[in-house]
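tokens incoming
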């Protein structure tokens, strides 16, 4: 799994909400209103990319996806309201029975 940082600038409110919901549904953590962070398997990255491309207007909207090394998350400096990054650095497995 790779740590991915996804950020966007989307003009239409409805589209912006759909993109945010898509990212949340794939388990990404919202860092700011248009910034998401999380671990993704390669096939999930491809699925998210395909869904986002169907939603956005490429003439007016921008979406960036960055692969972030673990050390960058471990050395992240935060001010203000803190976000728990531990689950992104060392994800826990949950067994649902």
């Amino acid at each position: 799994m790779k740590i991915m940082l996804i950020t966007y600038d989307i003009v239409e409110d409805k589209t912006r909400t759909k993109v945010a919901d898509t990212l949340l549904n794939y388990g990404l953590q919202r860092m700011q209103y248009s910034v998401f962070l999380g671990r993704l398997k390669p096939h999930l990255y491809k699925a998210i990319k395909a869904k986002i491309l169907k939603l956005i207007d490429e003439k007016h909207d921008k979406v960036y996806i960055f692969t972030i090394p673990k050390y960058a998350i471990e050395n992240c400096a935060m001010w203000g309201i803190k976000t728990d990054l531990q689950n992104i650095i060392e994800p826990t497995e949950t067994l649902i029975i």
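note: The helical segments are 13-25, 42-55, 70-74, 86-89.
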